[in-house]
User: What shape does this take?
Amino acid sequence: MAIAKAERLMNLALCLLGTRRPLSKRELRESIEAYLEAGSDDSFNRMFERDKDDLRELGLVIATVENLDGEVGYLARRDSNSLPPITLDAEEAAALGLAAKVWQQARLAGAASGALQKLRAAGLPEDVDPYEAHGALEPRIPVHEAAFEPLMLACRDRRPVVFDYRKASAAHPEPRHVEPWALECWRGHWYLAGWDRDRGAERVFRLSRITGKVRSRGSAFTAPVPDVVTVRETVASWAGEIADGTALIRLRSGAGYPLRAKAADVRELGDGWDELEIPYGHGLDAWLVEFGPDVVVLEPAELRADVVDRLRAVAKG
Assistant: This one.
């Protein structure tokens, strides 16, 4: 069984690498004997999708192209699947080993381990242990959102996606059609930056607000991908990190520690409440809403009105 699958994967890889134009599923099925022997179309489709994912997992870059008739084809361009000789010194190998240890999830840990094994085969010195500890701190980046993996693959393969997204001020999620650019972790949360087709503009989405499954689309990107995607700077401005004023709020005692950490001044009011002066920038209202009844905005008036409007929208839902 293992030999048969390895032979099937090799044949599929050779077909994708040897073609000058995208090949449809039908053409690939007619070219590979194992696919011809599939009992039904459903069986073939499942087998093909698994094989395609396995080849991508092994490092083969497979492009998905849609022709004028809407038929999806596949090919592996040689310029995308050829690399110059890889030479790493001990410090570079140690840096890669440290990066590989960041991920806690089994799927990502396996991919990182496989990548280091390929580097070893490509000439990584045998006396270098990329997993050797190089400090007392061992980094970890948690990934709890189910949307992370499909979005990571979509960013890598440049595939548009569709998902349902619930804004902080909305009671119900709305569908979003996005061309994903990059994922980045900021303040313990994962964010996706990309081109929102419905709004015709760049947007940043918090993964914890994505509901349901992320669905891929076979079409190509319509907007150019910027050389530098400033996810953190965009999120920081939306979260009020880039402040141009101050706000005065009441905060319940023992609550809202992130707000207390940002406060320029804290005064005890008694009766279980404190008064805080915090930086005020675009998006602060959305952040304050997350603390619910533990926060009361005193000033400025426009911030108080924005928070009240958001709370009423949630209550109506």
Notes: Residues 8 and 47 are 10 Å apart (CA to CA). The longest strand covers residues 174-186. The first helix runs from residue 2 to 18.
